[in-house]
């Protein structure tokens, strides 16, 4: 007995005078079920026993019908003109005609599917006769060894499909598999150098590669702005050797000895009580600056001093800290604020140009994708600069900067 016949049978027995409890008990239904269909029967509708749709009568977030019609018409007009007619092209056309609101890409795709304007692949795959490269036995053995060999655990191969891709970390608990785009950008937001690294590489160690590429292109700058990942004495020395300033924030904040002041002009350290060091000696990657012990013993704050040890009083200053102090000037804070503009470049590439996912396999092909992507973005930026007006290149620019940054690229087959 189907559901509709069961409902009619229950009401028929009710009209014959049978008690409701015996009806729903004999039919194996609940009290709520019986009175629900009794109420529907008393409403007087001829189709009271049929199941009603649970679809809401009003959808508050539904795309307006006018916008949906514009999307359909735009799709047809672009397709008939032989142009790209995907969701992104429809958005560009709506933006060009100042039509609002503009739905998201997923919403436009849903509207196209609802109106039967999508082309799905049909039929079985027919080989085109293209011969793809095959791995030899020796290469397979080498891949297996690199995956399971304990000595190579830090740089192990993560996939047989793309042996150049590696595991990387975006943030604590957020890993990815693929590559990193390492780029240099000038003050006009033009990308001048590009390098693609495996996901496990530390891009802070590849700064010199970008600077050498800049020299090859005869691009000269007066300073380099980078994030805290490039904070090291090696990178600062590399930048200073090219007669440029390094505007790089500190990676770690050291609380010990922060009340002591280093005087870069006199190469001494001054304590909060006004005493200064008299000598220094080399230790590791820095120097120990020594205070006079007799003066420290007579100091009224010696019991609160963080570096006084009874028989000696000294503080260690690293070479990196000294190099960092040389770069701190009036333009330092402004330069760090300028560096944030490079994040927009990566955001634009990931949102509008597919930079967030590798389209190919192998670091060489991914490098080609990244290079072509930034070339297109540079052309767009140049057109905007020409419209807005570019500063006269003959005028001196005392604060010309070079920004260095990186971004992760996920591999489409390794997600």
Which structural class should the secondary elements be placed in? alpha/beta
Radius of gyration, in angstroms, nearest whole number:
35 Å
**Which shape, going by the Cα principal axes?**
elongated
The total of helices stands at: 14
Terminal Cα separation, in Å?
Answer: 50 Å
Describe this structure in words.
The protein is α/β, with parallel strands linked by helices and 415 residues long. Among the domains are: 3-42; 65-114; 261-327, no CATH class. The protein is 38% helix and 16% strand. The chain has 14 helices and twelve strands. The strands form three sheets. Strands 1, 2, 3, 4, 5, 11 and 12 form a seven-stranded mixed beta sheet that branches. It has a three-stranded antiparallel beta sheet with strand order 8-9-10. The longest helix has 26 residues, at 363-388. The two termini are 50 Å apart.
Secondary-structure blueprint:
Elements lengths: L2 H13 L4 H7 L4 H12 L22 H16 L6 H10 L8 H10 L22 H12 L17 E6 L2 E13 L4 E8 L8 H10 L6 E3 L7 H8 L4 E3 L13 E3 L4 E3 L8 E5 L2 E5 L2 H5 L16 E5 H9 L4 H8 L1 H12 L4 E2 L4 H26 L13 E10 L4
What characteristics describe this protein?
415 residues, alpha/beta, seven-stranded mixed sheet, three-stranded antiparallel sheet, 14 helices, 12 strands, disordered C terminus
Write a compact overview of the structure shown.
With 415 residues, the chain is an alpha/beta fold. The chain has helices at residues 3-15, 20-26, 31-42, 65-80, 87-96, 105-114, 137-148, 207-216, 233-240, 293-297, 319-327, 332-339, 341-352, 363-388, and strands spanning 166-171, 174-186, 191-198, 223-225, 245-247, 261-263, 268-270, 279-283, 286-290, 314-318, 357-358, 402-411. The strands form 3 sheets. Strands 1, 2, 3, 4, 5, 11 and 12 form a 7-stranded mixed β-sheet that branches.
